[in-house]
């Protein structure tokens, strides 16, 4: 496989590599996405089911709250309580008209509230056998409630609690609903029960709500024993909920399998004994998300194929000039330097072809010029050898003159010639960038001797160098520009003293000082000089009456050289006052290799 890949052309390698880099990540990304988003999808489906469950729970709870509100209204409304108490004390002396008037008043007040809350059958039952019902009682005697088994549990209800009875056969003959959802509570006053209120909720509103869910989706209300209280199919009411044993232990959701199909089961406690239960097929709930993902995959696949076709065309267009350029290179390699690719264009390949052709032109020109240059070089080397003066010959002649003068007894002039020879030798020999401090001081001693001979003034050079500093390497011609500056500007080219002091400071750096006994500077001039030396880049300042130094560099260039060599390890200071001379202090590392 690898050998086959190597035999492919650059174009085919490029196309194959790009296609692999496009398709392979897409396949891996799809599988990884399926793996990592599986839990996310389940969570999203569960959240969606929870939201639907929350809405249904709010509606169901609202209906139950209406039932509680109706019972509380009957219990706590003052005017209604008076009428109920009066009806509860009916005896043989009470006329039928008074009884009818009391029942009518109670019924009207209950009906007013019932019309705003919904379709509920309200029964007010009194211990003396009197009752008030919001429904027709032609075929039903409300006093039969007193014989129900659940009435014992109603009598045990205390405070403001309600006994949720469950599903009862509909006792309203005018209703088509076979069942009612019933609840009851005793009416008490001062620890004495003076009546019972029983509320039956028509199931049509709840069944219409549950019917909105799909056929394979279940929404029911069950009691604590798992019996179905409300279902969209009335035939299921009163039966045992098939998946009661798989309910979550607490309120929430869980994934269960029923007949090989996975469901999301949710439960919500709507009363102390009743639960609202919802079962949604996971596949159906996730269908919309899976459909979205499938559509996304198809869109990606479409654009991948489209991009691959465009890529094949672009690669073919781009690599065609490269193939032509390769053919040109092969012909040039065979010796045909006149060949050119003639590739043009504004892109990189076009510029490459143009630059390649110009490169071949320059190679031809370079070969011609190289041949001619070799001839000129040989002629220049011959001329240079003919014009060259051997410095050693010059130093030997000066030493011969010095010996002849010494033989005649003129030792002073012989020493001057010796100093001149040493200074010229150091100036001409630029092979070494660094010399020892001892050698640098010796050169400046020769320099001061020549100054005294030239100007006739006696400049005394004093040296106070610590012995452990004499062999430290320093840059060549470091002190000569400072000595010359001290002589010209400090001593004003007159007699005086110049002192060189060296020592090692606590941090191991070398400190070199150059002092003169000259006229010094005013504070203004000293400040101007310091500001100038801090300027970057430092350029020499033309001073009135100044002369160029022997080495061709000045004090400013000395500072610049030290900054370049030692960087921030180099420090300096300049002190001066009128009539007390000038002191320049240089501070830098001992060895050149420590430069920054």
Automatic annotation (TrEMBL):
The keyword Repeat does not apply. Residues 316-368 form the HAMP domain. The keyword Kinase applies. It is found in: Cell membrane. It holds the Pfam family dCache_1. Its main location: membrane. Keywords: ATP-binding, Cell membrane, Kinase, Membrane, Nucleotide-binding, Phosphoprotein, Transferase, Transmembrane, Transmembrane helix, Two-component regulatory system. The chain crosses the membrane at residues 297-315. It is a multi-pass membrane protein. This is HAMP domain-containing protein. The lineage of its organism: Bacteria, Bacillati, Bacillota, Bacilli, Bacillales.
């Amino acid at each position: 496989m690898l050998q086959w890949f190597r035999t492919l052309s650059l174009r085919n390698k490029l196309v194959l590599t790009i296609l692999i880099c496009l398709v392979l990540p897409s396949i891996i990304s799809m599988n990884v996405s399926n793996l990592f988003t599986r839990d996310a999808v389940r969570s999203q489906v569960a959240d969606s089911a929870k939201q639907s469950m929350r809405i249904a729970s709010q509606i169901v709870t609202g209906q139950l709250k209406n039932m509680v509100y109706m019972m509380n209204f009957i219990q706590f409304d003052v005017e209604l309580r008076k009428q109920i108490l009066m009806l509860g004390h009916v005896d043989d002396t009470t006329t039928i008209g008074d009884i009818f008037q009391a029942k009518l008043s109670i019924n009207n007040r209950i009906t007013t509230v019932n019309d705003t809350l919904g379709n509920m059958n309200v029964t007010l039952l009194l211990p003396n056998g009197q009752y008030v019902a919001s429904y027709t009682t032609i075929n039903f005697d409300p006093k039969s409630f007193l014989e129900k088994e659940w009435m014992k549990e109603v009598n045990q209800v205390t405070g403001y609690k309600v006994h949720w009875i469950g599903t009862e056969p509909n006792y309203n003959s005018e209703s088509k609903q076979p069942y009612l959802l019933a609840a009851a509570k005793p009416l008490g006053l001062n620890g004495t029960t003076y009546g019972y209120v029983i509320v039956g909720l028509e199931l049509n509103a709840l069944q219409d709500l549950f019917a909105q869910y799909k056929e394979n989706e279940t929404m029911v209300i069950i009691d604590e024993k798992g019996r179905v209280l409300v279902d969209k199919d009335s035939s299921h009411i009163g039966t045992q909920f098939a998946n009661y044993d798989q309910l979550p232990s607490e309120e929430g959701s869980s994934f269960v399998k029923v007949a090989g199909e996975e469901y999301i089961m949710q439960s919500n406690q709507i009363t102390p004994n009743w639960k609202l239960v919802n079962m949604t097929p996971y596949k159906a709930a996730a269908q919309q998300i899976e459909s979205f993902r499938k559509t996304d995959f198809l869109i990606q696949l479409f654009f991948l194929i489209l991009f691959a076709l465009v890529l094949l065309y672009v690669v073919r267009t781009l690599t065609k000039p490269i193939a032509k350029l390769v053919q040109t290179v092969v012909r040039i390699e065979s010796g045909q330097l006149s060949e050119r690719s003639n590739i043009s264009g504004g892109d990189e390949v076009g510029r490459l072809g143009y630059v390649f052709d110009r490169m071949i032109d320059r190679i031809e020109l370079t070969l011609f010029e190289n041949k001619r240059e070799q001839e000129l070089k040989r002629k220049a080397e011959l001329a240079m050898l003919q014009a060259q003066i051997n410095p050693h010959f010059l130093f030997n002649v000066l030493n011969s003159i010095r010996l002849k003068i010494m033989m005649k007894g003129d030792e002073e002039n012989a020493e001057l010639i010796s100093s001149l020879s040493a200074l010229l030798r150091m100036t001409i020999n630029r092979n070494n960038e660094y010399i020892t401090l001892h050698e640098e001081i010796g050169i400046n001693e020769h320099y001061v001797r020549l100054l005294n001979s030239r100007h006739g003034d006696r400049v005394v050079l004093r040296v106070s160098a610590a012995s452990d500093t004499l062999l430290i390497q320093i840059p060549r011609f470091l002190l000569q520009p400072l000595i010359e500056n001290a002589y010209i500007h400090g001593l004003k080219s007159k007699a005086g003293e110049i002192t060189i002091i060296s020592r090692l400071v606590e941090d191991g750096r070398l400190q070199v000082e150059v002092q003169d006994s000259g006229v010094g500077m005013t504070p203004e001039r000293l400040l101007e000089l310091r500001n100038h030396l801090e300027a970057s880049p430092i350029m020499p300042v033309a001073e009135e009456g100044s002369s160029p130094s022997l080495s061709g560099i000045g004090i400013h260039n000395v500072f610049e050289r030290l900054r370049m060599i030692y960087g921030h390890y180099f420090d300096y200071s300049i002190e001066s006052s009128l009539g007390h001379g000038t002191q320049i202090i240089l501070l830098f590392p001992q060895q050149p290799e420590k430069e920054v």
